[in-house]
Amino acid sequence: MSGVRMAEGVPSKQMAQVIEKTGQPVVFKEIPVQKPGPDEILVNIKYSGVCHTDLHALNGDWPLDTKLPLVGGHEGAGVVVGMGDLVDDWTLGDYAGVKWINGSCLSCSFCQQADEPLCAKALLSGYTVDGSFQQYCIAKAAHAARIPKECDLEAISPVLCAGITVYKGLKESGARPGQTVAIVGAGGGLGSLAIQYAKAMGLRVIAIDGGDEKKKMTAELGAEHFVDFMTSKNVVSDVKAATEDGLGPHAVILVAVNEKPFQQAAEYVRPRGTVIAIGLPAGAYLRAPVFESVIKMITIKGSYVGNRRDSAEAIEFFRRGLIKAPFKTVGLSELQKVYDLMHEGKIAGRYVVDTSK
Ligand code: NAD
Ligand code: ZN
């Protein structure tokens, strides 16, 4: 007897946005609903945030191949409607989140010390396995995020990548309450959540991005200063000037999708400060002057999503009402329009897709 438990009414077919060939528009079509394997759950995705990573997957611009055809998406929030026979810690009807790390081996040295994003066998939602731009999505039971029932699935969906990632990055920066963090790309999806997490963690924020819409939004979210990279004559001196003593921010969180700021941050970070690289502009390199890096004793680190504990903590900040970042919702059928706006850098905050439309 198969031990797969399924809720009533799970259809055999569903609508999904499929990448058939990289570099071409996504295709909205009907595909089969998959059955969960022994250690997997099936999540009826209600909403999914759209991350810039999904656009990298569509464009195929990273040095890591995607599966093809591919259903993208890794900020999926929904309801558990099925599970395999080895799963005994989820209940049908629970709220679950499909995040970037869909699964990992759980036994390599990285997994053993809860560095599961570093697992060589990690499964990546919407990249190496199908993700949340479909109505029913598979996730490994051990890795799916637990979402408390009191949370709104639409508003929490961006937390499942953007929130977890920036929360982890802020922790990695070592910035302490009262210190100042510069968020580069502050008007985007990760950036807008980073402002909220930074504030909740007692940090002061300098937002760096371009245009008046993002200036206004970042101020509403709690940033004390805005440096416009598109109009500033000298970003380095403007960022330093935005700190009270002119010595620069204690940490820099790089979430822009552009190489330039990755080559500038080391110049304005405060002595003893930390630069955290999170954004993944295609083909980009970090750069820092050796002389200043040495005599300022600066640290430059990469930060990659978060582990299961970081995920739970990031969700708990949301549950407590501390994270209220702006989002706009459109139907799943309109995903390509979101990609087009994202490509043009026109999105302030996050777009969320509603899989019922
Ligand atoms: P987004 O498009 O929503 O936001 C990017 C923002 O960067 C935009 O607001 C844009 O105006 C701004 N920007 C562009 N050039 C800039 C510059 N020179 N200075 C300041 N701001 C600039 O993208 P997102 O969804 O927030 O994702 C950001 C990046 O983070 C992507 O590359 C994504 O793949 C990556 N990412 C990394 C991780 C990780 O674990 N490290 C996780 C999720 C996303
Ligand atoms: Zn993401």
How would you describe this structure to a colleague?
By secondary structure, this protein is an alpha/beta fold. The protein has two domains: 5-160 and 306-354, Medium-chain alcohol dehydrogenases, catalytic domain (Quinone Oxidoreductase, Chain A, domain 1, Alpha-Beta Complex); 163-302, NAD(P)-binding Rossmann-like Domain (Rossmann fold, 3-Layer(aba) Sandwich), CATH 3.40.50. Helices cover 25% and strands 25% of the residues. It contains eleven helices and 19 strands. The strands form four sheets. Strands 1, 4, 6, 7, 10, 11, 18 and 19 form an eight-stranded mixed beta sheet that branches. Strands 14-13-12-15-16-17 form a six-stranded parallel beta sheet, sandwiched between helices. Strands 3-2-5 form a three-stranded antiparallel beta sheet, with no helix packed on it. α11 (335-343) links the parallel β18 (327-331) and β19. α4 (162-173) packs across α5 and α4 (162-173) packs across α10 (308-319). It is globular, with a radius of gyration of 20 Å. It starts with a strand and ends with a strand. The model has no long low-confidence stretch (mean pLDDT 97). Residues 51-53, 56, 161, 165, 184-185, 187-191, 208-210, 229, 255-258, 260-261, 278-281, 303-305, 342, 345, 347 line the site of nicotinamide-adenine-dinucleotide. Residues 23-353 form the Enoyl reductase (ER) domain. Belongs to the zinc-containing alcohol dehydrogenase family.
